[in-house]
């Protein structure tokens, strides 16, 4: 076997979404989002904010099951904020999004 050659599985499974995402704490302009672990092999989780005009803003990534988001404000004219979480697999395939809504 050649030690310089690496093998990568070509058919890595796409991670499944875990529907248990929720806001567990809110204080001022900060939120704590928590969720259970997604089944299967997960590299990390991505967090996005869904904007009113249909796009999304990347907020960060984490390997943990909870994440604190600071400095958040409501978008102009919006009474709630929507946040999306996706599990990212070993080959960077992503799960279906799980959406959490927080009323300001």
Description:
This protein is an all-beta fold. It is 0% helix and 42% strand. It is built from no helices and seven strands. The strands form two sheets. Strands 4-3-6-7 form a four-stranded antiparallel β-sheet, with no helix packed on it. It has a three-stranded antiparallel β-sheet with strand order 1-2-5, with no helix packed on it.
Secondary-structure content class: mainly beta
Terminal CA distance reads 58 Å
Task: Show unreliable segments.
Answer: none
Q: Strand-residue fraction?
A: 35-45%
Strand order of the largest sheet: 4-3-6-7
* Overall spatial form: elongated
Quantity of strands, as a count:
7
Major sheet summary line: 4 strands, antiparallel
Number of helical segments with 4 or more residues: 0
The whole-number mean of residue pLDDT values reads: 82
What's the gyration radius in Å? Answer: 16 Å
As a percent range, the share of helical residues equals under 10%
Order of helices and strands: EEEEEEE
